UniProtKB/TrEMBL annotation:
SMART domains: AAA. One of its GO terms (molecular function) is ATP hydrolysis activity. This is ABC transporter, ATP-binding protein. Residues 4-232 form the ABC transporter domain. It holds the Pfam family ABC_tran. Keywords: ATP-binding, Nucleotide-binding, Transport.
Length: 295
Protein backbone atom coordinates (compact mmCIF):
# COMPACT_ATOMS: atom_id res chain seq x y z
CA UNK A 1 0.00 0.00 0.00
CA UNK A 2 1.30 3.40 -0.93
CA UNK A 3 0.28 6.27 1.35
CA UNK A 4 0.94 8.88 -1.32
CA UNK A 5 -1.68 7.40 -3.62
CA UNK A 6 -5.32 8.49 -3.56
CA UNK A 7 -6.33 5.13 -5.01
CA UNK A 8 -4.34 2.02 -5.82
CA UNK A 9 -5.77 -1.10 -7.48
CA UNK A 10 -3.69 -4.24 -7.97
CA UNK A 11 -4.66 -7.44 -9.77
CA UNK A 12 -8.42 -6.87 -9.59
CA UNK A 13 -10.72 -9.52 -11.02
CA UNK A 14 -14.50 -9.39 -10.82
CA UNK A 15 -16.41 -11.86 -12.96
CA UNK A 16 -20.02 -11.50 -14.07
CA UNK A 17 -21.54 -14.09 -16.42
CA UNK A 18 -20.91 -11.92 -19.49
CA UNK A 19 -18.24 -9.50 -18.29
CA UNK A 20 -14.93 -9.53 -16.44
CA UNK A 21 -13.38 -6.55 -14.74
CA UNK A 22 -9.64 -7.18 -14.99
CA UNK A 23 -7.50 -4.31 -13.72
CA UNK A 24 -3.85 -5.20 -13.42
CA UNK A 25 -2.82 -1.86 -11.93
CA UNK A 26 -4.32 1.58 -11.54
CA UNK A 27 -3.14 4.35 -9.24
CA UNK A 28 -3.08 8.11 -9.04
CA UNK A 29 -1.48 10.46 -6.54
CA UNK A 30 -3.25 12.46 -3.87
CA UNK A 31 -4.20 16.01 -4.73
CA UNK A 32 -4.90 15.20 -8.36
CA UNK A 33 -7.93 14.51 -10.56
CA UNK A 34 -8.18 11.28 -12.53
CA UNK A 35 -10.61 11.35 -15.45
CA UNK A 36 -11.96 7.91 -16.29
CA UNK A 37 -13.12 7.51 -19.87
CA UNK A 38 -14.58 4.54 -21.68
CA UNK A 39 -17.51 3.46 -23.85
CA UNK A 40 -20.80 2.09 -22.47
CA UNK A 41 -20.26 -1.18 -20.68
CA UNK A 42 -16.48 -0.73 -20.35
CA UNK A 43 -16.70 -1.37 -16.60
CA UNK A 44 -16.29 2.15 -15.16
CA UNK A 45 -19.21 1.89 -12.70
CA UNK A 46 -18.28 -1.66 -11.69
CA UNK A 47 -14.74 -0.54 -10.90
CA UNK A 48 -15.93 2.48 -8.87
CA UNK A 49 -18.45 0.30 -6.99
CA UNK A 50 -15.64 -2.17 -6.24
CA UNK A 51 -13.64 0.71 -4.72
CA UNK A 52 -16.63 1.52 -2.49
CA UNK A 53 -16.96 -2.20 -1.63
CA UNK A 54 -20.48 -2.17 -3.07
CA UNK A 55 -19.35 -4.85 -5.48
CA UNK A 56 -17.16 -7.60 -4.00
CA UNK A 57 -14.12 -8.46 -6.09
CA UNK A 58 -13.02 -12.07 -6.65
CA UNK A 59 -9.35 -11.23 -6.41
CA UNK A 60 -6.93 -8.33 -5.90
CA UNK A 61 -6.21 -5.42 -3.58
CA UNK A 62 -7.78 -1.99 -3.45
CA UNK A 63 -6.53 0.79 -1.25
CA UNK A 64 -8.07 4.23 -0.87
CA UNK A 65 -6.06 6.98 0.85
CA UNK A 66 -3.54 4.32 1.84
CA UNK A 67 -6.16 2.13 3.58
CA UNK A 68 -7.46 -1.30 2.66
CA UNK A 69 -10.94 -0.90 1.16
CA UNK A 70 -12.41 -3.79 3.14
CA UNK A 71 -10.51 -3.82 6.43
CA UNK A 72 -10.77 -0.07 6.92
CA UNK A 73 -14.07 0.50 5.14
CA UNK A 74 -15.72 2.67 7.80
CA UNK A 75 -12.68 4.90 8.21
CA UNK A 76 -12.46 5.28 4.43
CA UNK A 77 -16.13 6.11 4.02
CA UNK A 78 -15.86 9.00 6.47
CA UNK A 79 -13.28 10.55 4.15
CA UNK A 80 -14.84 9.76 0.81
CA UNK A 81 -17.62 11.48 -1.11
CA UNK A 82 -19.32 9.13 -3.58
CA UNK A 83 -21.84 10.10 -6.22
CA UNK A 84 -23.28 7.04 -7.97
CA UNK A 85 -24.51 7.06 -11.55
CA UNK A 86 -28.13 6.46 -10.49
CA UNK A 87 -29.75 8.71 -7.89
CA UNK A 88 -30.45 6.62 -4.79
CA UNK A 89 -31.75 9.39 -2.52
CA UNK A 90 -34.92 8.93 -0.47
CA UNK A 91 -37.64 10.32 -2.75
CA UNK A 92 -39.85 11.75 0.04
CA UNK A 93 -37.01 13.73 1.66
CA UNK A 94 -36.10 17.34 0.97
CA UNK A 95 -32.59 18.67 0.42
CA UNK A 96 -32.71 20.36 3.84
CA UNK A 97 -33.79 17.17 5.61
CA UNK A 98 -31.16 15.10 3.79
CA UNK A 99 -28.48 17.58 4.84
CA UNK A 100 -29.48 17.20 8.50
CA UNK A 101 -29.59 13.42 8.17
CA UNK A 102 -26.29 12.97 6.33
CA UNK A 103 -24.48 15.48 8.58
CA UNK A 104 -24.71 13.03 11.53
CA UNK A 105 -22.38 10.61 9.75
CA UNK A 106 -19.59 13.05 8.95
CA UNK A 107 -17.38 14.91 11.42
CA UNK A 108 -16.30 17.30 8.70
CA UNK A 109 -19.85 18.25 7.65
CA UNK A 110 -20.00 21.98 6.89
CA UNK A 111 -23.62 23.12 6.96
CA UNK A 112 -22.92 26.61 5.69
CA UNK A 113 -20.98 25.18 2.78
CA UNK A 114 -23.89 22.81 2.07
CA UNK A 115 -26.33 25.74 1.98
CA UNK A 116 -23.90 27.66 -0.21
CA UNK A 117 -23.63 24.73 -2.65
CA UNK A 118 -27.42 24.26 -2.79
CA UNK A 119 -27.81 27.93 -3.60
CA UNK A 120 -25.02 27.89 -6.14
CA UNK A 121 -26.48 24.88 -7.95
CA UNK A 122 -30.05 26.22 -7.66
CA UNK A 123 -31.46 23.38 -5.54
CA UNK A 124 -34.35 24.47 -3.31
CA UNK A 125 -33.80 23.31 0.24
CA UNK A 126 -37.51 22.51 0.85
CA UNK A 127 -38.26 20.63 -2.37
CA UNK A 128 -38.73 16.86 -2.17
CA UNK A 129 -36.31 14.66 -4.11
CA UNK A 130 -39.18 13.17 -6.15
CA UNK A 131 -40.04 16.66 -7.44
CA UNK A 132 -36.52 17.37 -8.68
CA UNK A 133 -35.49 16.87 -12.30
CA UNK A 134 -32.80 14.31 -13.18
CA UNK A 135 -30.25 17.12 -13.23
CA UNK A 136 -31.64 18.48 -9.94
CA UNK A 137 -31.15 15.10 -8.27
CA UNK A 138 -27.58 14.88 -9.52
CA UNK A 139 -26.86 18.40 -8.26
CA UNK A 140 -28.26 17.49 -4.84
CA UNK A 141 -26.13 14.31 -4.72
CA UNK A 142 -23.09 16.41 -5.53
CA UNK A 143 -23.88 18.93 -2.78
CA UNK A 144 -24.25 16.08 -0.27
CA UNK A 145 -20.96 14.53 -1.40
CA UNK A 146 -19.05 17.81 -1.30
CA UNK A 147 -20.41 19.25 1.96
CA UNK A 148 -18.35 17.09 4.30
CA UNK A 149 -15.23 18.23 2.46
CA UNK A 150 -14.00 14.70 1.71
CA UNK A 151 -10.35 13.89 1.04
CA UNK A 152 -11.39 11.75 -1.91
CA UNK A 153 -14.32 12.18 -4.28
CA UNK A 154 -15.56 9.33 -6.46
CA UNK A 155 -17.92 10.71 -9.06
CA UNK A 156 -19.61 8.34 -11.48
CA UNK A 157 -20.67 10.39 -14.51
CA UNK A 158 -21.59 13.42 -12.40
CA UNK A 159 -22.14 15.78 -15.31
CA UNK A 160 -24.23 13.51 -17.54
CA UNK A 161 -27.66 14.89 -16.58
CA UNK A 162 -26.62 18.53 -16.27
CA UNK A 163 -27.17 21.35 -18.72
CA UNK A 164 -24.06 23.14 -20.07
CA UNK A 165 -24.32 26.11 -17.69
CA UNK A 166 -24.57 23.96 -14.57
CA UNK A 167 -21.84 21.67 -15.90
CA UNK A 168 -19.53 24.66 -16.14
CA UNK A 169 -20.43 25.72 -12.60
CA UNK A 170 -19.89 22.22 -11.31
CA UNK A 171 -16.46 21.86 -12.94
CA UNK A 172 -15.42 25.23 -11.53
CA UNK A 173 -16.62 24.22 -8.08
CA UNK A 174 -14.77 20.94 -8.35
CA UNK A 175 -11.52 22.69 -9.12
CA UNK A 176 -12.05 25.10 -6.19
CA UNK A 177 -12.84 22.25 -3.81
CA UNK A 178 -9.62 20.42 -4.53
CA UNK A 179 -7.45 23.51 -4.75
CA UNK A 180 -7.00 24.34 -1.08
CA UNK A 181 -5.80 20.99 0.26
CA UNK A 182 -4.65 17.62 -0.96
CA UNK A 183 -8.06 16.49 -2.18
CA UNK A 184 -8.27 13.84 -4.84
CA UNK A 185 -11.00 13.15 -7.36
CA UNK A 186 -11.90 10.26 -9.61
CA UNK A 187 -14.36 11.43 -12.21
CA UNK A 188 -15.89 9.15 -14.84
CA UNK A 189 -17.56 10.65 -17.86
CA UNK A 190 -18.51 10.25 -21.48
CA UNK A 191 -18.02 13.98 -21.95
CA UNK A 192 -14.39 14.14 -22.99
CA UNK A 193 -14.32 17.94 -22.92
CA UNK A 194 -15.23 17.88 -19.20
CA UNK A 195 -12.34 15.53 -18.48
CA UNK A 196 -10.07 17.62 -20.66
CA UNK A 197 -10.92 20.73 -18.59
CA UNK A 198 -10.25 19.31 -15.14
CA UNK A 199 -8.23 16.08 -15.17
CA UNK A 200 -4.51 15.77 -14.39
CA UNK A 201 -4.49 12.07 -15.28
CA UNK A 202 -6.65 10.25 -17.80
CA UNK A 203 -7.44 6.52 -17.79
CA UNK A 204 -9.19 4.78 -20.67
CA UNK A 205 -11.20 1.60 -20.06
CA UNK A 206 -12.28 -0.94 -22.64
CA UNK A 207 -13.74 -4.41 -22.15
CA UNK A 208 -13.15 -4.34 -18.38
CA UNK A 209 -9.50 -3.37 -18.65
CA UNK A 210 -7.52 -0.17 -18.26
CA UNK A 211 -5.95 0.11 -21.67
CA UNK A 212 -4.14 3.38 -21.00
CA UNK A 213 -3.43 5.65 -18.04
CA UNK A 214 -1.20 8.66 -18.28
CA UNK A 215 -0.88 12.31 -17.41
CA UNK A 216 -3.25 14.27 -19.63
CA UNK A 217 -0.56 16.60 -20.92
CA UNK A 218 1.74 13.66 -21.72
CA UNK A 219 -1.05 11.95 -23.65
CA UNK A 220 -1.60 15.05 -25.77
CA UNK A 221 2.17 15.33 -26.30
CA UNK A 222 2.70 11.68 -27.23
CA UNK A 223 -0.25 10.77 -29.45
CA UNK A 224 -0.11 11.62 -33.15
CA UNK A 225 -2.06 10.72 -36.25
CA UNK A 226 0.53 9.36 -38.65
CA UNK A 227 0.55 8.60 -42.35
CA UNK A 228 3.41 7.47 -44.59
CA UNK A 229 4.33 5.19 -47.45
CA UNK A 230 6.65 2.29 -46.64
CA UNK A 231 9.54 2.07 -49.11
CA UNK A 232 9.34 -1.76 -49.20
CA UNK A 233 7.90 -4.71 -47.27
CA UNK A 234 10.93 -4.89 -44.93
CA UNK A 235 10.45 -1.22 -44.04
CA UNK A 236 6.73 -1.83 -43.51
CA UNK A 237 7.46 -4.53 -40.92
CA UNK A 238 9.86 -2.26 -39.02
CA UNK A 239 7.54 0.75 -39.16
CA UNK A 240 4.44 -1.04 -37.87
CA UNK A 241 6.13 -1.27 -34.48
CA UNK A 242 5.70 2.50 -34.11
CA UNK A 243 1.94 2.41 -34.67
CA UNK A 244 -0.55 1.58 -31.91
CA UNK A 245 -3.32 1.11 -34.51
CA UNK A 246 -3.17 1.33 -38.28
CA UNK A 247 -4.71 0.44 -41.61
CA UNK A 248 -2.75 -0.22 -44.76
CA UNK A 249 -3.35 -0.15 -48.48
CA UNK A 250 -0.58 -0.87 -50.98
CA UNK A 251 2.09 -0.02 -48.40
CA UNK A 252 0.40 3.32 -47.63
CA UNK A 253 -0.13 3.45 -43.89
CA UNK A 254 -2.60 5.52 -41.86
CA UNK A 255 -2.47 5.09 -38.14
CA UNK A 256 -1.79 6.53 -34.74
CA UNK A 257 1.30 6.46 -32.63
CA UNK A 258 1.26 6.73 -28.86
CA UNK A 259 5.01 7.16 -28.55
CA UNK A 260 5.72 10.41 -30.29
CA UNK A 261 9.00 11.96 -29.33
CA UNK A 262 10.41 15.05 -31.03
CA UNK A 263 12.34 12.74 -33.33
CA UNK A 264 9.48 10.47 -34.50
CA UNK A 265 9.48 11.91 -38.03
CA UNK A 266 13.20 11.33 -38.33
CA UNK A 267 12.99 7.79 -36.89
CA UNK A 268 10.24 6.81 -39.34
CA UNK A 269 12.20 8.25 -42.25
CA UNK A 270 15.34 6.35 -41.20
CA UNK A 271 13.32 3.10 -41.13
CA UNK A 272 12.12 3.63 -44.70
CA UNK A 273 8.97 5.79 -44.42
CA UNK A 274 8.31 8.28 -47.21
CA UNK A 275 5.89 11.23 -47.27
CA UNK A 276 5.57 11.21 -43.46
CA UNK A 277 2.71 13.31 -42.04
CA UNK A 278 2.16 13.84 -38.30
CA UNK A 279 -0.86 15.55 -36.74
CA UNK A 280 -1.63 16.22 -33.05
CA UNK A 281 -4.72 14.46 -31.64
CA UNK A 282 -7.38 15.71 -29.24
CA UNK A 283 -8.31 13.62 -26.21
CA UNK A 284 -11.62 12.85 -27.95
CA UNK A 285 -9.82 11.46 -31.00
CA UNK A 286 -7.50 9.37 -28.81
CA UNK A 287 -10.50 8.00 -26.93
CA UNK A 288 -12.38 7.08 -30.11
CA UNK A 289 -9.38 5.21 -31.54
CA UNK A 290 -8.73 3.36 -28.28
CA UNK A 291 -12.43 2.58 -27.69
CA UNK A 292 -12.81 1.04 -31.12
CA UNK A 293 -9.37 -0.58 -31.11
CA UNK A 294 -8.89 0.64 -34.67
CA UNK A 295 -8.10 3.77 -36.69
N1 LIG B 1 -24.84 -6.92 -11.20
C1 LIG B 1 -24.43 -7.30 -12.41
N2 LIG B 1 -24.63 -8.56 -12.88
C2 LIG B 1 -24.20 -8.95 -14.09
N3 LIG B 1 -23.56 -8.13 -14.96
C3 LIG B 1 -23.34 -6.86 -14.57
C4 LIG B 1 -23.75 -6.38 -13.28
N4 LIG B 1 -23.38 -5.08 -13.17
C5 LIG B 1 -22.78 -4.75 -14.33
N5 LIG B 1 -22.74 -5.81 -15.16
C6 LIG B 1 -22.15 -5.85 -16.51
O1 LIG B 1 -20.84 -5.32 -16.42
C7 LIG B 1 -20.52 -4.62 -17.62
C8 LIG B 1 -19.93 -3.27 -17.28
O2 LIG B 1 -20.94 -2.43 -16.77
P1 LIG B 1 -20.64 -1.01 -16.13
O3 LIG B 1 -21.95 -0.42 -15.70
O4 LIG B 1 -19.59 -1.16 -15.12
O5 LIG B 1 -20.04 -0.22 -17.37
P2 LIG B 1 -19.84 1.37 -17.56
O6 LIG B 1 -18.52 1.54 -18.22
O7 LIG B 1 -20.07 2.08 -16.28
O8 LIG B 1 -21.01 1.69 -18.59
P3 LIG B 1 -21.88 3.04 -18.80
O9 LIG B 1 -20.93 4.06 -19.34
O10 LIG B 1 -22.90 2.63 -19.81
O11 LIG B 1 -22.46 3.42 -17.48
C9 LIG B 1 -21.77 -4.57 -18.45
O12 LIG B 1 -21.69 -5.54 -19.47
C10 LIG B 1 -22.86 -4.92 -17.46
O13 LIG B 1 -23.92 -5.60 -18.10
Amino acid sequence: MNDLMAIELKGIIKKYPDFTLDVEYLAFSRGTILGLLGPNGAGKSTMIKAMMNLVGVDRGNISLLGMDHRREEIKIKKQVGYVPEECNLYEEASAGWLGQFVSKYYEGWDHRFYQHLLEKFGVQSGKKVKKLSKGGKMKLSLCLALAHRPSLLLLDEPTSGLDPVVRQQFLKELLEVIQDESRSVLFSSHIVSDIEKVADYVAFMRGGQIVLCDQKDDLLDKWRRVSFRAADSGAAERLKGYLAYYKEMNQNYQGVSGSCGDDLRQKLAELGAENVNLHPMSLEEIMIVISRGEV
